[in-house]
């Protein structure tokens, strides 16, 4: 439920863009209700590495510009991010979880091309929210969000690689973690 609280506060103004963004935590909340039992929970350190990425979305969304300040390009970027995130979360299905843990790895759908497409969608959405305020804010959010997501990705890949040998093979086949051609 903690995933949905920041969004509920942020969408109270009826802004259609914020309502669109609310689709992501709505899907996440539904998936949490259907979550599979864990094979092994992550460590406290792995959970702590994930918290900045989890906590970042609410404040960025809350402080994004009013709809009248959004350009068509920031709106498009947001829409692409929402689509990538929702499709990725739906593909994860019952393997979705908020904190790192040894859940069954998913290698189909968008996970065939990038190892963490839901986080790419999140990064695009956060960037669009920042750009709605200013180019400088967009740049700052890209830097902060990328750093937070990299910490989270490393924590998740450590536990998945330790618990599932097939995940190591998958890492060899699917080169890009977050940003195609970069990382």
How would you portray this structure in words?
The protein has 8 helices and 2 strands, in the order H-H-H-E-H-H-E-H-H-H. The chain is an all-alpha fold. It is globular. It has helices spanning 5-10, 16-21, 23-34, 44-62, 72-92, 117-133, 135-163, 165-173; strands spanning 40-41, 101-102. The model is unreliable at 1-11 (pLDDT under 50). The longest helix is centred in the last third of the chain and has 29 residues, at 135-163. The chain has a single domain, classed as Four Helix Bundle (Hemerythrin (Met), subunit A). Strands 1-2 form a two-stranded antiparallel sheet.
User: Which architecture does the CATH hierarchy give at level 2?
Assistant: Up-down Bundle
Q: Overall pLDDT, averaged?
A: 77
Rg, Å, rounded:
16 Å
Q: Name the structural class.
A: mainly alpha
Largest sheet features? 2 strands, antiparallel
The total domain count is 1
Key terms for this structure?
65% helix; 183 residues; 8 helices; 2 strands; Four Helix Bundle (Hemerythrin (Met), subunit A)
In short:
It is built from eight helices and two strands. By secondary structure, the chain is an all-alpha fold. It has a two-stranded antiparallel sheet.
Blueprint (SSEs and pairs):
Elements: H1 5-10, H2 16-21, H3 23-34, E1 40-41, H4 44-62, H5 72-92, E2 101-102, H6 117-133, H7 135-163, H8 165-173
Antiparallel strand pairs: 1-2
